[in-house]
Every structure is written in C-alpha cells, then in structure tokens.
Amino acid sequence: MEEFIQQIPKLFVPENLIKIGGLGLLLFIVFAETGLFIGFFLPGDSLLFTAGILCSTHVLDVNIITLMLGLNVAAILGNLTGYYFGLKVGPKLFTRNDSIFFKKKYIKITRSFYKRHGGKSLIIGRFLPIIRTFAPILSGVIQMEKKLFLGYTIIGSILWTSAMTLSAYYLAKVIPDLDDHLGLVVLFLIIITAIPVFTTYLREKKSSENP
Asked: Does residue 188 lie in a domain region?
C-alpha cells in the first residue's frame, strides 16, 4: 500500500500519463481541462508538448494528423461543454461556496480578464491555466452568441494545439534524442510559460479586487 501511494505523484507527470493511458487518456484530459470546471489543475500545456515529442519519436504510436485532429476535437468539445454548463448554472456560479476544486477567486480573475479582452479571452486564455478552464463557462453565463463562441473556440484550439504540440513534434525531428531529456525540457517549458501566467494572474487579481 505504501509503495502504491509513493507511485501516485508519478501519475501526474505528463510523460507517464501518456505512456499509461495512451491517446484516449490524453484526449480526455484535454477535454476535461475546459469541459469540467475541476480540470484547471490538469497539466494541459506540458501534456500537449510532451505528446508532440512522443508522437515524433513514435513512443505515442499515432499519426501526427490523427493526433492533431483528436486534440482539436477534444479541446472544442471541452469548450462547448463548459459553455453549456455556464448556460445552465448561470449567475449561481458566482455565489457557489468554495470547495477543494472550486474557488470563487478563479471566477473573479477570469471575469476581470474577460472584461479586458472580450471574446478574445477564448483565444488568449487557451494559453493560461484556470482562465482556459473558466472562460468557456463564463461565456455561457453571459450567454455569448453561439456562432461567435464557436468561432473563437475553433481559432483558440487550433492555435493552442499547434503552438504546443506541432512545435514539439518538429523540434524533436531537429534535435536528436530530445526525448531522453524530456523531464528537463518540460521543466523548462513550465518555467517559461509560468512567467506570463504569473504576471497575468497578478494583474487580473488586482483588477478583480478593484473593479
């Protein structure tokens, strides 16, 4: 039992998630990160980047076209699920009590970001955890026009998956044995992407506290 508990943290390493669950688990996580409001803690960016490298090195045995189509379908369906969840829940979401998986501050930060960028939040927010999860839900809450929402969603999904997965796929073609240093590459990616994420959160948190 103790050995099993020690293995649990390894399940949250992107490479291990993909090797254990394959394409199916990868697509579910991409869907859940925007389709389920508890999905904000999932490793979206690093998971897509890792998937690109593993696909390029044939560790993930799937064609890159199939992978990209699957990722985009999962990302779009996730957004649509979040949107309809927002339509159903509506303003009640803003009065929901805090829990382990939900904090009202996440909604406040996302709403502040949404006020600043409008529908483009669905594109820009794809690259920002938490906002990536709650922007589609907020779009449903404010009842954004469905065609407009779908347009922003498709553009955001294509840009996000291309930037993360395709770049990693071709990078692995150029740099030999990149997969042997996958842990360091992912760590570098996390650090680089954390800088704009951190500054954005600070700005939007300050804005949400001082409307």
From this structure: yes
